[in-house]
């Protein structure tokens, strides 16, 4: 019997529907394909429609067409979640369907993909987002190697992973307490106030159930990939490695963007380059709270007040729907007129391009993981205003551990005076220089990890060999 090992492994990748997960997941598909794997990539139908519409004014675009024409073996398909494209997916009803009915849809799709390649042997493996609840079941049914991809830092993974231990010690739910936790493997000490919002809440919703279930499921994954860098989270990663094969392979970027452009944005993006090019180097504060988080109008008013007081140049992403307002504008009256000569307000933008522009000197961020990584990559220090989920824990890494950012406010409530003061601290002066120096250092760590003998590249190659061996081992067992 000929060895199966020479046959290309074929990754079946089913993407989560959230913007912050789509970006690294697509990047992972490109990376796997560039290592010689075949990939079948599935977006949810509504995600497919939204990207097609926002990026190409079309109803139906093969987002990987260009990547394929540059030689990568990626087949693109869609999967239905059982709802119409226009359905409002911010409801509990959706979470429930995602939890209970979506696994059947995945089962159907995986069955179909495997059948359509049945002559090609059984070199398939499964790659899912760690927030998925279906991988263990599907992997078992089809005998597939099960790869889980975690798009957030290892610290956050570790906290969810040790949920049971935290519960036994009475630290979850946090219920507003502030206590240091020092018994988690690979985590020296973390205050409960820095736990993700889902561990803070005492009232559990379906979303909590979904996340906790996903972290039960990941315990049977064959391999876990994490979009972080080993040198930044050495101990947390070492401790996780003792439990399961865990590979730090970040930061995942698209690589040569000109060669392999892949549309990933759910919203149309404003191009701010021309505006930025007319501003002095390091003079612009970029303000964005990401694709998902909501905040209240008062926060927007205080930040607007702070921007007015600080006199800083700025680009502010005000995403439609980020504030639940009763109609009308969310900015204070006259704000746009008073800042017309130094500010640009956009509904969404190409964040990477803004951060990489020399005019950008600071980032007021919600601390989404992609934003943090992109900001460090561009050597832009941050002011942190986390709103929920992992953002709260990510803030600790940025401000307390790596010292590449400061807090927007230290108390419970936000005032415009404090906002203005911290913008001043970030944008110029001694403290700003220190932050920039530290950001450069962390940037070097990221850059080194991505070189040929850097940790992330080596870890990725190691994963490639390990997954091939595991597929081979299973084939032999079957024969
Ligand atoms: C989008 O496509 C429609 C129909 O083809 C066309 O009428 C419209 O002008 C296009 N919009 C943009 C912004 O290109
Ligand atoms: C791409 O995937 C679809 C869905 O599984 C399948 O029907 C089709 O044959 C595949 N195309 C190629 C070129 O592999
Ligand atoms: C944005 O605009 C600049 C110049 O104004 C241009 O060079 C660049 O290609 C544009 N970027 C995109 C993504 O369209």
Please explain how this structure is put together.
It is an enzyme of class 2 (transferase). Pfam families: UDPGT. The protein is α/β, with parallel strands linked by helices. It folds into two domains: 4-264 and 452-478, Rossmann fold (3-Layer(aba) Sandwich); 281-446, Glycogen Phosphorylase B (Rossmann fold), CATH 3.40.50.2000. Helices cover 44% and strands 14% of the residues. The chain has 20 helices and 15 strands. Strands 3-2-1-4-5-8-9 form a seven-stranded parallel sheet, with helices on both faces. Strands 12-11-10-13-14-15 form a six-stranded parallel sheet, with helices on both faces. A two-stranded antiparallel sheet has the order 6-7. Strand 1, helix 1 (19-34) and strand 2 form a beta-alpha-beta unit. The termini are close together. The model has no long low-confidence stretch (mean pLDDT 93). Bound molecules: 2-acetamido-2-deoxy-beta-D-glucopyranose (3 copies).
Topology, element by element:
Blueprint: E1 10-14, H1 19-34, E2 38-44, H2 45-56, H3 65-69, E3 74-79, H4 92-100, H5 102-116, E4 124-129, H6 135-142, E5 145-150, H7 154-161, H8 163-168, E6 180-181, E7 190-191, H9 197-200, H10 206-217, E8 223-226, H11 234-241, E9 246-248, H12 273-277, E10 284-288, H13 297-310, E11 313-317, H14 335-338, E12 343-346, H15 351-356, E13 360-365, H16 369-377, E14 382-384, H17 391-401, E15 405-407, H18 416-427, H19 430-450, H20 455-478
Parallel strand pairs: 1-2, 1-4, 2-3, 4-5, 5-8, 8-9, 10-11, 10-13, 11-12, 13-14, 14-15
Antiparallel strand pairs: 6-7
The protein binds 2-acetamido-2-deoxy-beta-D-glucopyranose (3 copies).
One 2-acetamido-2-deoxy-beta-D-glucopyranose binds at residues 40, 75, 77, 112-113, 116.
């Amino acid at each position: 019997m000929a060895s199966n090992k020479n046959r290309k492994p074929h990754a079946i990748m089913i993407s989560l529907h959230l913007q912050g997960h789509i970006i690294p997941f697509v990047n992972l598909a490109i990376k796997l394909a560039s290592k010689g794997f075949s990939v079948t990539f599935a977006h949810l139908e509504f995600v497919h429609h939204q990207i097609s519409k926002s990026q190409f004014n079309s109803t139906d675009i093969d987002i990987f067409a260009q990547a394929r024409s540059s030689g990568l073996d990626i087949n693109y398909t869609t999967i239905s979640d059982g709802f119409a494209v226009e359905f409002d997916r911010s409801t509990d009803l959706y979470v429930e369907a995602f939890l209970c009915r979506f696994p059947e849809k995945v089962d159907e799709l995986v069955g179909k993909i495997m059948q359509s390649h049945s002559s090609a042997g059984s070199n398939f493996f499964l790659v899912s987002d760690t927030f998925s609840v279906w991988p263990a079941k599907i992997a078992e049914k089809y005998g597939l190697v099960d790869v889980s991809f975690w798009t957030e830092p290892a610290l956050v993974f570790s906290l969810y992973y040790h949920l049971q231990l935290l519960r036994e010690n009475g630290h979850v739910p946090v219920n507003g307490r502030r206590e240091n936790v020092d018994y988690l493997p690979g985590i020296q000490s973390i205050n409960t106030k820095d736990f993700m919002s889902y561990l803070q809440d005492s009232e559990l919703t379906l979303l909590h159930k979904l996340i906790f279930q996903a972290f039960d499921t990941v315990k049977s994954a064959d391999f876990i990939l994490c979009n972080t860098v080993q040198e930044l989270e050495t101990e947390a990663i070492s401790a996780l490695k003792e439990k399961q094969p865990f590979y730090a392979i970040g930061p995942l970027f698209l690589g040569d963007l000109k060669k392999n452009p892949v549309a990933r944005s759910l919203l149309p993006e404003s191009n701010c380059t021309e505006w930025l090019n007319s501003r002095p180097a390091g003079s612009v504060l970029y303000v964005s709270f990401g694709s998902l988080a909501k905040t209240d109008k008062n926060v927007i008013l205080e930040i607007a007040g702070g921007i007015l007081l600080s006199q800083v140049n700025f680009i502010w992403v005000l995403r439609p729907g980020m504030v639940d307002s009763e109609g009308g504008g969310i900015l204070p009256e006259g704000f746009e007129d008073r800042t017309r000569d130094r500010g640009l307000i956009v509904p969404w933008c190409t964040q990477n391009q803004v951060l990489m522009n020399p005019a950008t000197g600071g980032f007021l961020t919600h601390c989404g993981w992609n934003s943090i990584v992109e900001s460090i990559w561009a050597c832009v220090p941050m002011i942190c205003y986390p709103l929920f989920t992992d953002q709260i824990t990510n803030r600790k890494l940025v401000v307390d551990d790596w010292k590449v950012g400061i807090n927007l406010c230290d108390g419970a409530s936000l005032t415009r005076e404090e906002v203005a003061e911290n913008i001043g601290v970030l944008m110029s002066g001694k403290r700003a220089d220190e932050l920039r120096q530290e950001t450069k250092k962390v940037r070097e760590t990221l850059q080194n990890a991505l070189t040929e003998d850097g940790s992330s590249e080596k870890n990725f190659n190691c994963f490639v060999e390990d997954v091939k061996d595991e597929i081979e081992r299973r084939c032999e067992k079957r024969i």
